[in-house]
Design a protein that fits this description.
mainly alpha
């Protein structure tokens, strides 16, 4: 495996965790403007997409590799976002979900509560959003690749 693919994997994981916090901040700051919130929440996904697709296009000269690099990053971001949710509740804690915090491990329902949350929320989140990441990542990756090659061709 090329080193750049490991970097893409790391970027996808880190971006998913970043997006977890980013979503909390933007929802709190932009309660009144649904359109602006929609644009800001979705535009941030272009931040890792544009440089990765352009770099992969330059290095590999392959449209498929460029598109796949974006699908990989977006898919791993969805998975890490969702897994961070359970990590946060179990190891960091949240006031409204204290029953999932690790200090309650002696409770006879603790394991079933964590399992229920994982299956009901985390797995459902991954299952629901992964197709969006795959299809959206492919379309976005293709468009970025296409536009980059077209602009590069015009400059030559």
């Amino acid at each position: 495996m090329k080193k750049r693919w490991i970097v893409y994997i790391i970027i996808g994981i880190v971006f998913g965790i970043f997006d977890f916090f980013y979503q909390e901040v933007t929802v709190g700051a932009l309660k009144n403007s649904h359109l602006l919130l929609f644009i800001i929440d979705w535009a941030v996904w272009l931040v890792p997409a544009i440089p990765i697709v352009i770099y992969e296009t330059k290095i590999s000269n392959s449209r498929k590799a460029a598109v796949f690099s974006n699908v990989l990053v977006w898919s791993l971001a969805i998975i890490s976002y969702s897994l961070y949710m359970i990590f946060k509740l179990v190891f960091i804690g949240q006031t409204s979900m204290k029953f999932l915090y690790i200090s309650n491990y002696r409770d006879k329902f603790y394991i079933s509560n964590v399992k229920s949350f994982f299956v009901g929320s985390v797995w459902t989140e991954i299952y629901s959003w992964l197709p969006v990441a795959i299809i959206g990542g492919a379309v976005t990756g293709f468009l970025i690749n296409y536009l980059y090659l077209r602009i590069r061709k015009q400059r030559i």
